[in-house]
Specification:
The structure holds 2 protein chains of 2 kinds. By secondary structure, chain A is mainly beta. Helices cover about 5% and strands about 40% of the residues of chain A. The chains are: A mainly beta, B mainly beta.
């Protein structure tokens, strides 16, 4: 097909437009590169699959973050070679303080260059034009001319050596030309390295460049004249050395070349070193301008068969040769004169550790008195400052090694600490490479401890701090701050590449803890235990308790004391520590006040009492319960004990400090258990061997009362598992505790009310009343003391051990601060069923008030029906002391069924409406359910009270009549309207009165 | 012939428990529990002739052919917490059902300041029913337990029932509910208020609309024998997988206590169904106590 010219032009134009369309990757815009720019990269991306959006990036704006964000990659990819020119040698330290370094980045097809701690630039990009590279490898930097540094780059992919001028003032680069052999016909093929030979002159004119022409297995020498200021260069071919092979003057894939010339009068001595990589050897020539080959020198020490891969070489100021051995991740140092082995450097097993290399491809020494090596690894440039001792012919990296990294990333840093007592452990996770330093600072921000720099790749690292500062002394307690800093050691345009994380943690190296038994109720020796968080065990300790003097400093941390029952024992124990190293005695100590509750008896504490525990029964943490844990099950806060088996043994007890103390023991006839101490530990719950007084009749004892208030009634239910128990006594053993000073307690009994009281002038009085007891039974109260505290099974038969209280008498036996007694009722027969014994516990400010309240309770407590073996349970609380005549009680939660005078006592406020039946739950076989209500002053009211079953059927009409103002109490005997007993169950009482309707539930139990 | 056989069965059910009761014992006021499912509850408690496991507490024969589960909750005016769960599955061998009912009175002495004094009653029954031609027969055995303030009693009860399809939408049924007794720890017996429930239902169907009228009479087997009367009407409409139903009813609970007054309530309620899912709600008003609410959720399989 033939196109007319116009059409051809149009077609080409269309092709051109297509060709000029931005591509999807950077190289498409290489044509726009200007040699005077360090770099000009176009990053294009496809937007919504419709069009390309390109971003042009100029060199002056390139920063790490910028390139990462815009180019999607880091500025440095995989460096291959490096070369440096020292600009400033510190004569005092004899190290190079400032050097311009350049490294090739083959994967990114560019040159990375800059000055350590000052700036970093990239130059080039993929392509074959001016200012572009294709897999650049070896780099050689000529001596500076002003600000300009001429760099030769083995542009392997383009089969040429690129010559570039880099200005460290303008921080820019410019293309000077290339050497590809086209003018001489000696074309380069895949050059891997290049070395500039300054010929020992002070200018860069008429210099030579040695090129490792790798693919052609030869070294090519060119002469160059450089003018970096103008950016011009002239070149001419000089010679090529070597042929392919493994003979003396033969090479196979040489990938490293280094040349050094020195002048002696009238002579120029040039020495050439070549990494004959394919032959796994290093060659040296001393051509003396003749370029004649020298025999190969190969040292057995560094020629690891089959594994070494010699690449870049560098001569140092002493004329010795350092070689990068990629195959073995090391550097070799050979004597330059004869290539004899000197030493190696690099940990071949850990390529990431300090001073180690990962597949190093090149090495560069910087001119200085001490050596500064730029070692190029797979993806980093390490600048190792390695003082070299010619005396020992070995590097001493440990004495001055510093590592900087060029072209590495410092990524995210996560750090945290764990501290406890006198230690801290710092954990940090590093993403990216570089150096990490952990610094601990005190509250003033001053560094107290620093940790060795860690050079490491990504991963979790840990530093442990033992609480000592840099001087080796333990730091004071307080809050400390850790700071983990991870940095590259290289300054980019956007600042030092680093991340920092910090946090606070407590340190306490001086706390001394003293601990004691929680409470003590038994005679014996108890140990006070001290401990310290301080790590040093060489400290000494001293203690005192009970306000006594300190003992001498000693190494023992623990102490002990002995207490006896029947007296309150308070120990004040102080434990101090002293550090012998500096005599610091006040740096840490602790004082613990040991509060030892009073033991209720010398020997009467349960033998199996757990000194470390106990069961608070009142839900009060201050309560100590010296009881056998096996004998009592108590749910804190619920105030109920249940299902304790124990005939003739205690089923539980409690002691609370202060006057609100109740200690209840169930007691039935013969005491069970071994030994003579009272009470003995109860056998395990449910133990069928528990027997009653009349033989082998397990008796179940249950507490069903609450116990959280000052005025309360405990219902103790005794039920025989088998019938036939007769003429026994059931009761409680009581052990009140009135307060700190018990020496003036008094004990008495009021026969009229049945009140047994204990009074203390300072702490008030506690009274116990049996509010309901089986009909026909008598109450027996017997007191015993610590002097007669051995339990005697039968109080009646052992009068020597008991003293029966006389009416209205105050009598104590034994020690006055040892008040224990038994309240029992009997004789009873369990054959009839359960026996419930209600015991009211009353507390008052003094004995007078106590007696007044007891009289009130006695007045309200109804007589138990004759022949009944059961009584109801009542619970009441009087929040105020009995008032004067005419005053009103403040009654809460009363049980009207057992308190007939409730309505009177309630003191209805004038004008109040009918009071609904309040509490009225339980109707036992012969019990009476009472419903109390009151009609306020004013007019009479018709009150209807019905009992319904759960389905709503009417069971009984209790009332449907008019009542005059006043208080009333109606009873339901548990029968239905026809006079038949209702079945056990829950019934609903409905009370209706003008303006009032209320319901309440009644439980019938049979 | 079949009707005669059914009558004989019913007569035997009515007569047989009578001889087992001694006179003078107290009779439980709790068992049997009333129908807590919202469907029979909304129909005044009638349903001894109706099929479906929601009526199984009225007649165990109603269980025949049922497959599914039901949960019912009763908001009691007496303050108890009433729950009913029924599961039933039908195979070639018949229908097996399990029912659990519990009434929890809670801590009845909480206002006294006394904890852990509670009361509760429960009924766990296992029933078996089978379709025999136009008849359905079922039996269930229940374990009954009560706990009043720690005084516990337990016993067994038996329900036996039969239903018959007389054709033209007419069904009849009869059952003897809860024959048995309870005993507490001390051996005191408490008789269950066994009674015979008999009733009928008639369903008129017009297109997607079905109206069912039910009526039951429950006669105690001893005591004052004041019968309980139950009557209810249900109108349901269904289309596809959707259905809706309205119910109303009336009940009169005879008074065995000599108080002479029956406890009467009006009931009403409704339900919706979607596929095998169903929800029913019922309310009883006008009683001596407060109004009652019933809620049931059912799923079939």
């Amino acid at each position: 097909m033939k196109l007319i010219p116009q059409m051809r032009v149009a077609f080409l134009a269309i092709l051109a437009l297509i060709a000029l369309q931005p591509g999807t990757s950077a190289p498409a815009a290489a044509q726009t590169f200007l040699a005077t720019r360090a770099i000009d990269v176009t990053k294009c991306e496809r937007v919504l699959g419709l069009f390309n959006r390109c971003v042009n990036i100029e060199s002056d704006r390139i920063t790490r973050d910028f390139t990462r964000a815009k180019l999607g990659q880091n500025l440095f990819a995989n460096t291959w070679s490096t070369s440096s020119d020292c600009k400033w040698v510190d004569a005092s330290e004899q190290v190079c303080k400032r050097a311009v370094s350049a490294g090739s980045d083959p994967l990114a097809h560019r040159l990375v260059w800059g000055t350590v701690d000052r700036f970093l630039r990239a130059y080039g990009g993929f392509g074959s034009g001016a200012g572009q590279f294709s897999m650049p490898k070896g780099v050689s930097m000529a001596r500076a001319e002003g600000e300009w540094h001429v760099v030769f780059v083995a542009d392997a992919g383009n089969n040429r050596v690129a010559v570039i001028a880099l200005g460290d003032q303008c921080r820019c680069g410019k293309w000077m030309g290339e050497i590809d052999g086209s003018e001489s016909g000696v074309r380069l093929s895949g050059p891997s390295d290049v070395s500039w030979d300054h010929r020992a002159t002070w200018s860069i004119q008429d210099d030579r460049v040695f090129i490792a022409d790798t693919e052609n297995n030869r070294i090519v020498v060119y002469g160059v004249n450089l003018d970096p200021v103008t950016g011009t260069m002239s070149k001419h071919y000089i010679a090529s050395l070597g042929t392919e092979g493994s003979g003396p003057m033969q090479l196979r894939r040489p990938e490293g070349v280094e040349v050094r010339s020195s002048r002696v009068p009238h002579f120029l001595i040039t020495t050439l070193y070549v990494s004959d990589t394919g032959n796994q050897r290093v060659l040296s020539w001393s051509p003396d301008n003749q370029y004649s080959s020298l025999p190969t020198t190969q040292s057995a020490e560094f020629a690891a068969p089959g594994s070494s891969e010699f690449l870049g070489l560098s001569l140092d100021a002493f004329g010795d040769l350092t070689i990068a051995d990629r195959g073995q991740n090391r550097l070799l140092k050979l004597k330059g004169s004869d290539l004899s082995f000197l030493t190696t450097y690099g940990n071949q097993t850990n390529a990431w550790a300090v001073g180690s290399f990962n597949a190093p491809t090149d090495v560069e020494t910087v001119r200085a008195y001490h050596q500064l090596y730029d070692v190029v690894g797979t993806d980093r440039i390490s600048i190792e400052h390695l003082p070299y001792s010619q005396t020992t012919e070995a590097w001493s990296a440990s004495t001055g090694g510093q590592t900087h990294r060029l072209g590495v990333e410092v990524g995210a840093l996560q750090a945290h600490t764990q501290a406890g007592g006198c230690w801290a452990s710092f954990w940090f996770h590093i993403t990216g490479q570089g150096s990490t330093r952990v610094v601990v600072k005190n509250s003033l921000g001053a560094a107290v401890r620093g940790f060795t720099t860690v050079v490491t790749p990504s991963g979790w690292k840990n530093e442990y701090w033992d609480g000592r500062n840099d001087a080796g002394a333990f730091v004071p307690g307080g809050t400390y701050t850790y700071e983990v800093r991870h940095e590259s050691g290289y300054t980019y345009d956007d600042g030092l590449l680093q991340t920092v994380q910090s946090g606070t943690f407590p340190m306490d190296c001086y706390t001394v803890n003293a601990s004691t038994p929680a409470f003590v109720t038994q005679k014996g020796t108890f140990y006070l235990t001290g401990s310290a968080t301080h790590p040093s065990d060489s400290w000494t300790w001293r203690q005192s308790y009970n306000g006594g003097s300190y003992n001498d400093w000693e190494f023992a941390q623990n102490s002990s004391f002995t207490t006896y029952g029947g007296e309150r024992f308070t120990a004040d124990w102080e434990l101090s520590a002293r550090r012998p190293s500096d005599g610091a005695t006040s740096s840490g100590y602790a004082t613990t006040l040991i509060d030892v509750p009073e033991c209720p008896g010398y020997d009467i504490c349960p033998p199996t009492y757990d000194r470390n525990g106990g069961t608070p029964m009142l839900g009060d943490s201050s309560v100590r319960a010296p009881m056998n844990g096996d004998s009592l099950r108590h749910v804190p806060g619920q105030g109920r004990m249940r299902d304790h088996y124990g005939s003739g043994a205690w089923v539980g007890g409690r002691t609370e400090r202060g006057p609100r103390v109740v200690q209840l023991f169930s007691l039935f006839g013969t005491h069970q258990g071994s030994g003579t101490a009272w009470p003995n530990a109860l056998a395990s719950e449910g133990d069928a061997t528990q027997i009653s007084a009349d033989g082998d009749r397990p008796v179940k004892v249950a507490f069903t009362s609450g116990a959280a208030e000052a005025y309360e009634v405990h219902k103790v239910k005794f039920s025989a598992a088998q019938a036939g128990f007769r003429d026994g006594y059931v009761g409680l053993a009581l052990d009140p505790d009135l307060g700190l000073r018990a020496s003036d307690d008094s004990l008495g009994m009021d026969t009229e009310t049945g009140l047994v009281w204990v009074a203390d002038p300072d702490s008030g009085a506690i009274g116990y009343m049996v509010t309901g007891r089986p009909s026909g039974s008598q109450m027996v109260v017997r007191q015993f003391s610590r002097n007669k505290d051995t339990w005697h099974p039968d109080p009646a038969a052992d009068s020597a051990a008991y003293a029966e209280l006389t009416a209205n008498a105050s009598m104590l036996t034994g020690r006055r601060d040892d008040v224990r007694f038994v309240i029992a009722v009997g004789p009873v027969a369990l054959a009839a069923g359960d026996i419930e014994l209600g015991v009211a516990v009353i507390r008052a400010a003094n004995l007078t008030d106590l007696r007044r309240q007891a009289a009130e309770i006695a007045r309200r407590t109804p007589a138990v029906a004759a022949g009944s073996g059961r009584t109801g349970i009542t619970r009441f609380r009087i929040t105020q002391a009995p008032p004067q005549a005419g005053a009103q009680y403040n009654v809460e939660r009363v049980s009207p069924d057992l308190i007939p005078g409730l309505a009177d006592a309630a003191g209805l406020a004038p004008g109040s409406r009918v009071i609904a039946p309040d509490l009225r739950e339980q109707v036992r076989a012969n019990g009476i359910m009472a419903l109390a209500f009151a009609v306020p002053d004013g007019t009479a009211a018709r009150v209807e009270i019905r009992i319904h079953d759960a389905a709503g059927r009417i069971v009984r009409h209790l009332s449907d009549e008019s009542f005059e103002p006043g208080a009333y109490r109606l009873q339901w005997d548990g029968n239905d309207e026809a006079g038949a007993k209702v079945a056990p169950g829950v019934y609903i009482a409905v009370m209706q009165a003008p303006g009032y309707r209320g319901t309440t539930r009644l439980v019938v139990v049979r | 012939m079949r009707a005669r056989a059914a009558a004989a069965v019913i007569a035997s059910l009515v007569a047989s428990p009578c001889a087992s009761f001694a006179q003078g014992e107290v009779v439980s006021s709790t068992f049997p529990f009333p129908a807590w499912h919202a469907a029979p509850a909304a129909e005044g408690g009638a349903g001894s002739a109706r099929p479906g496991m929601e009526y199984a507490v009225l007649n165990p024969a109603a269980l025949a052919g049922a497959r599914g589960g039901q949960f019912s909750r009763h908001d009691s005016p007496a303050g108890s917490d009433d729950n009913l769960i029924t599961l039933a599955h039908t195979g070639r061998w018949g229908t097996l059902g399990v029912t659990f009912q519990r009434r929890d009175w809670g801590e009845v002495a909480r206002d006294l300041g006394l904890d852990d004094l509670s009361a509760g009653e429960q009924d766990i029954s296992v029933g078996y029913a089978r379709v025999l031609g136009q008849f359905r027969a079922g039996v269930s055995v229940a374990r009954l337990d009560t706990d009043y303030l720690g005084v516990r009693a337990g016993g067994w009860g038996v329900d036996v029932g039969m239903q018959a399809d007389a054709g033209r939408g007419l069904r009849v049924g009869a059952a003897m509910i809860h024959a048995g007794r309870l005993e507490n720890d001390e051996g005191d017996p408490v008789r269950l208020p066994a009674r015979v429930r008999s009733g009928g239902s008639w369903t008129l169907t017009r297109s997607a609309l079905a109206v069912t009228t039910s009526g039951d009479v429950a006669v105690p087997l001893e005591g004052k024998r004041d019968p309980d009367l139950h009557a209810g009407v249900q109108a349901g409409y269904g289309r596809g997988s959707l259905g809706a139903v309205l119910r109303t009813g009336w009940r009169s609970l005879g008074n065995p206590y000599g108080a002479g007054e029956a406890e009467k309530n009006w009931t009403f309620g409704g339900g919706v169904s979607f596929g095998k899912l169903r929800a029913d709600l019922a309310r009883a008003v006008g009683g001596s106590l407060d109004d009652e609410t019933f809620l049931s959720l059912s799923v079939g399989w």
